[in-house]
């Protein structure tokens, strides 16, 4: 697309504007968007106005801006994520009903774990994960599964750091993380006690597509001191079913 005088393309600017929205920052003024996207105020107001006209952004009664339902509609059509989520839903519902803790589905996206779905109940404990939110691969149980069963280049890129600390027990030492990933690959599941937050333990298993490739991680977030075996049994069963729904035959 055509370049502006400052050298960044229109697409760059649009992506910067849309990326100022986060799971916890869902409503902003046009001026805040401009500041966060590092755009001159007039450019920000013009771009935001055009995006509102197109329906990709929406303006509320206080003239504050949020992501438009049209953007959700387009993004939700993403065939890959939608197919995976639909294949996973029935099994995820059973895991949540039986274990009664947060049950979530994550995929690898630009070197992070992106959560496509999260089911929670009234009794579920603490959880920092959000639908359409991300966590660092080395810190979350799902991320450890995606790393352990992912490409070697991905693993080496993440091991090269930086390994950000999210809690006291996050593995930030590359050698310790390498050992953990070998263990996850050998066991076929990941347990992450206190890696994301001190009060919980993440437990995750791989989900395979029709070719046997690991395409997602299915996880539960347990209380830190919970027994993990019942959750593991449910997760493995669910992952097998989701794999079968995706056409995976063993
Ligand atoms: C995990 O997957 O390890 C995990 C995710 C969210 C939490 C805690 C643990 O809040």
UniProtKB/TrEMBL annotation:
Single biological process term from Gene Ontology: negative regulation of DNA-templated transcription
SMART domains associated with the record: HTH_ICLR
- Family matches, as InterPro entries: GAF-like_dom_sf (IPR029016), HTH_MetabolicPath_Reg (IPR050707), Tscrpt_reg_IclR_C (IPR014757), Tscrpt_reg_IclR_N (IPR005471), WH-like_DNA-bd_sf (IPR036388), WH_DNA-bd_sf (IPR036390)
Q: Where is the HTH iclR-type domain?
A: 8-69
Q: Which domain of life is it from?
A: Bacteria
The GO molecular function terms of this record are: DNA binding; DNA-binding transcription factor activity
- What are the record keywords, sorted? DNA-binding, Transcription, Transcription regulation
> Taking every annotated instance into account, which residue ranges of this chain make up the domain IclR-ED?
70-248
Record's protein name:
Helix-turn-helix domain-containing protein
Please tell me the species this chain comes from. Agromyces seonyuensis
């Amino acid at each position: 697309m055509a370049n502006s005088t400052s050298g960044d393309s229109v697409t760059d600017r649009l992506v910067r504007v849309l990326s100022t929205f986060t799971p916890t920052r869902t409503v902003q003024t046009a001026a805040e968007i401009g500041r966060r996207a590092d755009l001159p105020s007039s450019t920000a107001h013009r771009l935001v106005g055009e995006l509102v006209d197109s329906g990709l952004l929406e303006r509320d009664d206080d003239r504050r801006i949020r992501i438009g339902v049209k953007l959700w509609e387009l993004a939700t059509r993403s065939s890959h994520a939608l197919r995976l989520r639909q294949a996973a839903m029935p099994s995820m519902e059973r895991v949540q009903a039986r274990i009664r803790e947060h049950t979530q589905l994550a995929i690898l996206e630009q070197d992070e774990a992106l959560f496509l779905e999260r089911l929670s109940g009234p009794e579920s404990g603490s959880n920092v994960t959000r639908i359409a939110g991300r966590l660092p691969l080395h810190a979350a149980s799902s991320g450890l599964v995606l790393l352990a069963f992912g490409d070697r280049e991905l693993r080496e890129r993440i091991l090269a750091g930086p390994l950000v600390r999210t809690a006291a027990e996050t593995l930030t030492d590359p050698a310790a993380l390498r050992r953990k990933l070998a263990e996850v690959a050998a066991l076929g599941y990941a347990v992450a006690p206190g890696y994301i937050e001190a009060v919980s333990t993440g437990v995750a298993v791989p989900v395979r597509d029709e070719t046997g490739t690991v395409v997602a991680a299915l996880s539960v977030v347990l209380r830190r001191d919970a027994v993990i075996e019942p959750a593991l049994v449910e997760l493995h069963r669910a992952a097998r079913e989701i794999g079968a729904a995706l056409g995976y035959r063993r």
